[in-house]
Specification:
alpha/beta; Four Helix Bundle (Hemerythrin (Met), subunit A); Rossmann fold; binds 5-S-methyl-1-O-phosphono-5-thio-D-ribulose
Length: about 350
């Protein structure tokens, strides 16, 4: 199974991104050739999804090095990029990895330094695709034949450098010959499920239905869902997972009705430095995302809005966390520590 699109690639000294703000009605590509372009693309969600943000930021650091021969300016550009969105840890993970290469090559001639940085950005992108394929093969094991799966937000090729995390597991299960049916939450307020996951599911010809987010509870209670599989933006050292708003509610319903609930993440989404989910910064986005739908006002002018983009699911509600190093089951703290020490589960 191959996607009919490439959402993120480097061509002719430009990062070329499929504009996720306007899919599925228009397929338009945006060129980024400066670190400011990349920062805007991440902040304005031309590109979104934790691994895709990380891979894009890596190219942003390459542009920063090209634009900023002075070390201080380069550092400032990296900080600027790192502040484009707060929750997905893949952003700072990729930037730190690029900065390490910058430091190691700082005494080299400029063209050697830039070549090394570009090679590292390519490596981050390539590794993400390979990682997702591995995650898919590992994760497919938990998907029974004839499973009906519910997913939330978008975790496919659009959200990553390619293939996808949770959607990658679903696609792999289909490739493995299993009959799969998917319910995709529309994922208010930005409709990543309706606009992006539905588009990817149709592209992959996977039998599926789009549902309003609030229909998920009824489907789960009525025994219509065999398992929930979704992504993650930052996993704390105890296994708490920050993911798209609505994930926590789904986990509570799954726990109440005994439905397996899996988060699918690359190891680059684990933040070993924080003990639990309370330390994860949760992005709050603009009111217009809630008061307007596709530019049409749906709430009275002046209405106050609370619009967190993510929520934190406590590890107690999670059946397993699927990574390229294996599937982590409770006790998550110990298993995350094993992954940190380089073990495969
Ligand atoms: O705000 P977004 O669209 O960047 O949020 C994306 C998600 O929450 C995804 O579920 C997560 O990044 C995992 S993507 C493989």
């Amino acid at each position: 199974m191959v996607e009919s699109f490439v959402a993120l690639e480097f061509r002719n000294e430009k990062l070329v991104l499929l504009d996720q703000r306007i899919l599925p009605t228009e397929v338009v590509y945006v060129d980024c050739s400066t670190y400011e372009d990349v920062e805007f693309a991440i902040r304005d969600m031309i590109v979104r999804g934790a691994p895709a943000i990380g891979a894009s930021a890596a190219y942003g650091v390459y542009f920063a090095a090209k634009q900023c021969p002075e070390h201080n300016d380069f550092q400032k550009a990296c900080t600027f990029l790192a502040h484009s969105r707060p929750t997905a840890v893949n952003l700072s993970w990729a930037i730190e990895r690029m900065k390490t290469v910058h430091t190691l090559n700082s005494k080299q001639p400029r063209d050697v330094l830039l070549q090394a940085l570009l090679a590292e950005a390519h490596a981050i992108r390539e590794e993400d695709i390979q990682t997702n394929r591995t995650i898919g093969r590992i994760g497919s094991i938990v998907v029974p034949h004839k499973a009906t799966i519910l997913t939330h937000c978008n975790t496919g090729a659009l959200a990553t450098a390619g293939w996808g995390t949770a959607l990658g597991v679903i696609k792999q299960a289909v490739e493995d010959g299993k009959d799969i049916f998917v319910y995709a939450d529309e994922t208010r307020p930005r409709f990543q499920g309706a606009r992006l996951t539905a588009w990817e599911l149709m592209d992959a010809r996977i039998p599926s239905k789009l549902i309003p987010d609030s229909a998920a509870a009824t489907l789960i209670r009525d025994g219509k869902i065999d398992l929930v599989i979704l992504g993650g933006d930052r996993v704390a050292a105890n296994g708490d997972v920050a993911n798209k708003l609505g994930t926590f509610a789904l986990s509570v319903i799954c726990k109440a009705y005994g439905v397996p609930f899996y988060s699918v993440v690359p190891v680059s989404t684990i933040d070993f430095s924080i003990n639990d989910g309370s330390a994860i910064p949760i992005e709050e986005r603009e009111a217009e995302e809630v008061t307007h739908v596709q530019g049409v006002q749906v709430a009275p002018s002046g209405m106050q809005v609370y619009n967190p983009a993510f929520d934190v699911t406590p590890h107690q509600n999670i059946t397993g966390i699927i990574t390229e190093k294996g599937i982590m089951y409770p006790p998550f703290k110990e298993n995350i520590e094993r992954i940190r020490n380089g073990e495969t589960l």
